[in-house]
Amino acid sequence: MTAQAFPLTWPDTMPRSDRKAESRFKTPLSAALKNVRGSLNLFATDTNKRVENLVISSNVTLGVERPTDSGVAVWFVWDSMQVCIAVDRYAKVEDNLQAIHHIVEARRTEMRHGGLHIVRATFRGFTALPAPPGTKRRSWREVLGFAAGATADKPSIEAFYREKAKKSHPDAGGSTAAMAELNVAKSEALKEIGA
Fold it and tell me: How far is CA 109 from the centre of its chain?
């Protein structure tokens, strides 16, 4: 996946938030951007590993500072890993950016107290892996089990999701990849119907 600053490039493996939480952040957009860049620079210094190919992706553009989709994805390469930290928990872009700043600061705390191996292990959870070459991505309808042309509404999407999750979850004999695909499918389905 090639990240771009605009429009928002969201990682395929990360589910979207269904509800927006209230934020206590009071940080304006320009300061939140500065905080993310600053914390990544300090993180690179702390780990003695460069942060490269930084892309801060959102739906903010000239003239649209408050997009409907307030999600933010920060993409970069660190220690030969392509990493993406994506947050859409809050209704404001600047609040999601500030949350990413705090996530990076948490990695700095891990570095100070646990060392580089702990940070590497944590970042494996943020690794943004592209689909294997030649892999065709299944539609949300196929993943959730909706028949072609069947009408989908929020209750039916959630019911199909719960049923599939019983088998797809790693605790039930499924896998992380299967659960990630299911989460993306649910997110795409709800977005398509406007829920």
Answer: 21
**pTM of the entire structure?**
0.66
Amino acid found at 156 = S
> Taking a C-beta distance cutoff of 8 angstroms, is the pair 16, 70 a contact?
no
Distance CA 160, CA 165 (A): 8
DSSP symbol at 59: S
Helices (H), the chain: 29-47, 93-114, 116-124, 140-144, 154-168, 176-193
Over residues 113-154, the pLDDT tens digits come to 999 999 988 887 766 555 444 446 778 888 888 887 788 888
Q: List all residues 6 or more positions away from 132 whose beta carbon is below 8 Å from its beta carbon.
A: none
Residue 66 one-letter amino acid: R
